[in-house]
UniProtKB/TrEMBL annotation:
Record NCBIfam families: tRNA epoxyqueuosine(34) reductase QueG (TIGR00276)
Recorded name of the encoding gene: queG
PROSITE patterns from the UniProt entry: 4FE4S_FER_1 (PS00198), 4FE4S_FER_2 (PS51379), HEAT_REPEAT (PS50077)
Organism: Planococcus salinus
Taxonomy, superkingdom: Bacteria
EC number in record: 1.17.99.6
GO BP terms, alphabetized: tRNA queuosine(34) biosynthetic process
PANTHER family listed in its UniProt record: EPOXYQUEUOSINE REDUCTASE
UniProt-recorded name of the protein: tRNA epoxyqueuosine(34) reductase QueG
Length: 381
């Protein structure tokens, strides 16, 4: 069989196994990306979750000898939740970003890439392949951009005309000289809605992100959330979708294609208060299958406390006092102290005064003082 014919069969097979888009790119070094990555590092705009070795990130031949081409894949995920529960006073809810609504996409995409590898190996015994999704060295977006999956948009996401930006990306480096696809023209035009709507001004200029200011990143950190961002996080427990939900290219892209990515509303939009006391075992059992649980329960619990403060949820005060008095983790005690000040009930004030006398951790003491200061401000007002 000739290669052109095989490439067509591969595309047809990809669609059969639930790959929504496939594209082919050369495995030439990614020179532009290299400059962008170095610049991002110099500006301290990176999140720290990226592979630090810029050479590995931009030279596919370092990852697979004889690398000739890269196969890029995209799988769409839903943007609309059926029967989404509404939070009400006494039963407030948080939200996971759409990318973390269903089954963990790492497993779902790897499964498909493994099937593709087997398909290729059966036809090309001399094929050499290396697949990756998210945690690999390459920039999944730079590969997708080169392979014509979508354009690299101002909100930094790859946007596909078919599914908007609600797509997961993955790729396979191969030694097979597939015919490359053409990259797609930019379709953002003069629009700048994402830049203007981003709650923290994290999109510095079209296509460039200061990840240190991005709420998606901030929801995934394990320490105290810097004060500046505490009022901005809202009820987000993991990730942030604002620059995608405002994007006109995502209008009418419900993408309800793969049942495995359909959210369980009680997991994707969970009640906040039960999260405060959830055990490790229960957390793993309930949230372990979504990608948003990868940092463990602490960041989610810290964000749940901030969400309760955002709602000024007085009914949560006893649970927050309990955390302040007895949680082992300083980040949780301190964030609870801040939240009690923000919510502003008498019980909260009394508990802060009480704990102020005994708390030994310096950072928690600072948070207690911030909590108390909210009451002082309230009295002045
Ligand atoms: C680190 C990381 C993050 C960090 C930093 C994100 C960022 N924009 O750099 C944080 C935690 C903030 C993050 C958030 C999210 N992420 Co993320 N993340 C990654 C990861 C692991 C590496 C990204 C990276 O290297 N960033 C460094 C920048 C420089 O590289 P890049 O974004 O890949 O580069 C492209 C553009 O940014 C642009 N560019 C870069 N610099 C500049 C400068 C100028 C001037 C211009 C014009 C362009 C430009 O060019 C590149 C090619 O398109 C990738 C997986 C991977 N291995 O690639 C997933 C990945 C990018 N994330 C993904 C997703 C889904 C998200 C979220 C939507 C999740 C959410 N809902 O919260 C948000 C989106 C936030 C946003 N606006 O980017 C998807 C993207 C899917 C898509 N359609 O684009 C990926 C590919 C995971 C996957 N395999 O599906 N993420
Ligand atoms: S994910 Fe949220 S915080 Fe990050 S750039 Fe988009 S809108 Fe801004
Ligand atoms: S909101 Fe506008 S500028 Fe931003 S990514 Fe969408 S189309 Fe591009």
């Amino acid at each position: 069989m000739n290669l052109d014919q095989f490439q067509k069969e591969l595309v047809a097979y990809a669609s059969e196994i639930g790959i929504d888009k496939i594209g082919f790119a050369s495995a030439e070094p990614f020179y532009n990306l290299k400059h962008q990555l170095i610049r991002q590092q110099q500006l301290n705009y990176q999140s720290g979750f990226e592979e630090p070795d810029v050479e590995k990130r931009t030279r596919p031949e370092l990852l697979l000898n004889e690398a000739v081409s890269i196969i890029a894949i995209a799988i769409a995920y839903p943007s609309k939740m059926k029967d989404a529960p509404q939070g009400v006073r006494g039963a407030r809810r948080g939200i996971f970003s759409r990318s973390s609504w269903g089954r963990d996409y790492h497993a779902a995409l790897k499964e498909r890439l493994t099937l593709l590898e087997a398909f290729i190996a059966a036809h090309y015994p001399e094929a050499r392949m290396r697949s990756m999704v998210d945690t690999g060295e390459l920039s999944d977006r730079a590969v997708a951009e080169r392979a014509g999956i979508g354009w690299s948009a101002k909100n930094t996401n790859i946007i596909t005309p078919e599914f908007g930006s609600y797509v997961y990306l993955g790729e396979m480096i191969t030694n097979i000289p597939f015919q490359p696809d053409e990259p797609m023209e930019d379709q953002c035009g003069d629009c700048r809605l994402c830049i203007d709507t981003c709650p923290t001004g994290a999109i510095v200029e079209g296509g460039q992100l200061n990840a240190q200011r991005c709420i998606s990143f901030l929801t995934q950190t394990k320490g105290f959330l810097p004060d500046e961002f505490r009022d901005k996080i809202g009820n987000r427990l993991y990730g942030c979708d604002t620059c995608q939900t405002v994007c006109p290219k995502n209008k009418r892209k419900a993408n309800r294609i793969h049942p495995e990515f359909e959210p369980d509303p009680e997991i994707a939009k969970p009640l906040l208060e039960p999260l405060l006391k959830i055990s490790n075992r229960e957390f793993k059992g309930k949230f372990g299958y979504v990608s948003g649980s990868w940092r463990g329960k602490k960041p989610i619990q810290r964000n749940a406390i901030l969400a309760l403060a955002h709602f000024k949820e007085a009914d949560a005060v006893p649970a927050l006092i309990d955390l302040l008095q007895s949680d082992e983790r300083p980040v949780i005690r301190g964030t609870a102290a801040w939240a009690l000040g923000k919510i502003g009930t008498i019980e909260g004030l009394e508990s802060l005064r009480e704990v102020e006398k005994t708390e030994k951790d310096e950072e928690v003491q600072e948070e207690i003082q911030k909590g108390l200061a909210f009451f002082a401000e309230g009295l002045k007002g």
